[in-house]
Amino acid sequence: MKRRKFFQVSTAGAAGLALTSSCNTQSGNEKTEDKASVLPSEEPDYKKSIKTEFTSVKAKPASDKVIMALIGAGSWGTNLILEAANSGENILIKYVCDVDDTRGGRAIAELEKIQGFRPIAVRDLRKVYDDKEVDGVFIETPEHWHALAAIWACQAGKDAYVEKNVSHSIFEGQQMIKAAMKYERIMQVGMQNRSADYAITARDYINSGELGDIVSVHVRELLDGPIAFNEKENSPAPDTIDWNMWLGPSPEVPYNVSRNKSWLYYWDYAGGNVTSGGSIHQLDMARLILGNPELPKSVYCAGGRYLFNDNRDVPDYQMATFDYGKFVLTLETGEFTPYFQKEGLDVRLGTKYPKWMQNSTRIDIYGTKRMMYVGRMGGGWQVFDKDEKLVAQDKGIFPLKAHILNYIDCIRTRKQPNGSIVEGHKSSVHIHLANLAYRAGNKQLLFSPELEAITNDSKAAEMAMLTYRKGFEISKDV
Predict the structure, then answer these.
(1) What's the whole-model pTM score?
(2) pLDDT of residue 7
């Protein structure tokens, strides 16, 4: 990837789990001595399986067409596959797969215009995986399907692009890594900022020492709202959907249009605001800029349903604090701030920088010398000294196309992708820990980065382990 140097601004031109012992307040009367019921005796076995190079599959010449499929044809999946089809990288989208017949029509119609071939519509992703011609897939399903769809892809000899949040539990992410390494399949995670040049220059600036020592990092996703929600009654599943397949690994429940269309609000299918809102993008970008630090040793998360007394599982506000020992990172998410805005296209695809004060998705990095603002998805970064003096900056554009091109290139070359499943898993662990700390009762949880296990709360440790329906199991043997 081409890397650009950061631009200095001249003076004349510019006018989980627990916190450290000092912050050990508990929620309610819980005792910190509560131990997790079962702790692993050794590090997760996926760590021994990690490879930096794949050799079992030969590189694919540029003259050979790459055959692809879309798994999950919602609005974002449609946008993604059309971006891929328009990339000019000699690819063919052979299948559009969705369990819901009412989805995928736009993708199929547009793809037929672009490539002169009408993709085959299927409901069951296993039909796609049975086709030996298919080289890779884009997995754009609800989150509860990400891990199993990716593992099945690897077992079928397919490369996979997996949307965020990568997994639905810590265990699932571990198994995804094992599958990618065992079958030597490319697994690119849909955290597009990993392909943003300006993220690398921000990291280089921090490495230069110009910010000083990093002490505090604040990541936010404060969205427009509040948003009312009225859960519908259960009803028979329409003929247009395979509800059993839609549920997949998740618990069996009657069809409910709210679960189907608003799955982001249910723990069975999603990770709440900290994943569905997109804050995983900012958190992952912050990790990249900070040099991909290892997992935190503790997390505290507080939040709740403050604005509406409805049946949503997920809170409308959360604040998580991760302790890395040498610095602290906070993650703040909510849906009650109509005065905050995401970057517009003039920022994401242009030369303008965000209006930082009311930017809903910014990252603040505070050093002992200066501070840095970072905007995701093309926002760029700027460094400020005292009196709002701008001292350095770099700008980029929305890196979605670059991320897709990197995935296609890695399918051909067998090189490791920018958004590796290893780093995608580590970022996703933060999300799982934040939600577990919240769901355990707004707790402070201790965590072992080596064992990837909660060490002080049996309730949270129990919730971390999901169960799966027969036929959709994810086992340790992938």
Answers:
(1) 0.92
(2) 44
